[in-house]
Amino acid sequence: MHLGIDLGGTKIELIAMDSNSTTLLRERCRTPQGDYQKTLDAICQIVKDNEQKLQKTSSLTLNSLSTSSLGIGVPGSISTETGLIKNANSTCLIGKPLKEDLSKRLQRPVSVANDADCFTLSEACDGAGEPYNNVFGIILGTGVGGGISINKTILNGPNAITGEWGHNPLPWLTERDIVRPCYCGKQACIETFLSGPGISKQLERLSLMDSDTVLTLKSEEIFQLSLSGHSLASKCVNRYIDQLARALASVINILDPDVIVFGGGLSNIDSLYPKVHVKLQDYIFSDSVNTKLVKAQHGDSSGVRGAAWLGKSQITESSINKR
User: Fold this and answer.
1) pTM
2) How many CA atoms are closer than 13 Å to the CA of 116, on its beta-carbon side?
3) Helix 115-126 and helix 302-322, axial crossing angle in degrees, nearest 10
4) Residue-wise over 237-265: b if at least 16 C-beta within 10 A, else e?
5) pLDDT tens-digit profile of 198-231?
């Protein structure tokens, strides 16, 4: 039995998978806002409640459930220096010993990884990236994250920041790029351009430059409006495509992945894939673009499935090391 939890800013999602990666159960609850202790309570409660459900609907005993693997994807990472959460959009997690606290309260080992790593692991193991060895997974949503999988294994570095392309500066800046400060303290981070809020802010600035009226729309609405020929929305979308191509080209020049798997709300905009692929040719250091750009196979489920894969992989590694 392998349990996975996706700890998001607004929801906590749990999944239970068997050894064949078949989903046995999925459940969601709201994430307590800005309260670390209540977040711990909510995670422990959803685990307890759903283990009881599994016990009633299967032949599993409570003892076998309590020794099942548990992986958690978080919007941040664990510091290799302190063991505390860092770089989290959910700021109440920053500086907290999440892994240690949950292990104590649930009385079992807990694996914790960045949510983008979990997304990438899921898609690399049995999703859109399964046929490939070198997979770069990206999240284009409220934030911009990424993860790298080599041979179905997440690549981890000494700083626990592998794949954090969203906090590199946008390459090849032009005077048309609207530079804004990022929550991380830097300016011109890729996340400020390519996130959902980022493209909304770009449209607001473009509308102010074009008229006295501020046009405030969500990212999905901007793309939909551009399809109708709206000039400002079309200009904003074209800039976004060029910015996304530049940002991905800098990754391709370093990593040269077989495939880039898109996740997050903006990954559902199908027109992005062919347009960005064509635009990549203007920026990558090659005479051709052979990197595949694909949508996540498991959609919104990739993060929580990857968390379950994370726990499963930790058990596999432990058993190998004991031999």
Assistant:
1) 0.87
2) 33
3) 80
4) bebbbbbbbbbbbbbbeebebebbbbbbb
5) 999 999 999 988 777 788 999 999 999 999 999 9
